[in-house]
Amino acid sequence: MKKLIALFLGLTVLSCSSEDQLNQDGVSSVDTSASVLDGKVLSFKTEESFVKEYSDLAVLNSDELKNWISSKKLISLFNTSNSSEGIEEDNVPESRVVYSNALKAVLNSDSKVKIAGKTLWLNEFTFYLLSAEDQNKSSEELLQVKNDLPIYGQLAALSKSTQSLTGRNVLPNENRVKTFASAEITVSGGRLRHVIDLFNETIVLNDKIYTSKMYLRTILQYRSCSTWRCTWKEAQNLRTLNSYFCENCNSLAWGGIERISTTSAVSGTQTYLLASWRELPPPYITVYPNFFISGQFTCGVVGGGSFSADLSWY
What is the pTM for the complete model shown? Predict the structure, then answer.
């Protein structure tokens, strides 16, 4: 009997030990792939882990991103940037810098991130490699020495929306933004307009194309006037959104376009992932087709009024 009890106790201890080891292995595998806060920046072990986490974040909504950022204890660019920057005037500039929420979530408020032990600073469309001497400098200080910093990567190349891109065969798509600003309407005594940004984000690191994604960003703005001038600022009116795109008009490399249809009213700036370019497995060869989109996007303001726009990339 004593032998049976001893055998039972031994098996129990062995079982618990094995379970503990499995749990530790599970935590360890998560720790090695996920980003961690290193001082004031997020740190990723490899470029691949950076791109994977960025891609995972690209499908999250604003509230989910805020929760993720809070869990990382990061002061991110997502929380400190102004969505209406560059579109305050009646005429929206043709060329602007627009980042996805996913990219802003992984960058700190100075647009820095650490990958494979290298501290990178994103300024407009260029990733600069920072030395130990420069990595603690603010964005304002780095601008003074920008021309002396080595370049590590880029967000492809900015092109004007009027430029023909149909013959491009080097990158999956140009990094640019195409904006659709509606005429203003009056809702409950206020003047509103709807601004849609259709944009591409192609990340190149160390001369390698890692990812290319198409996004749609929607902003509702109200007219704000002072004694001297009037500008457009972000409105918080509740609204519903729906897209009516051709969902299967792209090549295999881009796949289908995600449909946007809000099940409940939303407010504030909203960004949606439309499609992701990917390298196809053999026997396919790597191709870099241009992105195609056409169709209508509608915005209905709760309390009255609606906007409609026909979107296209070219």
Answer: 0.83
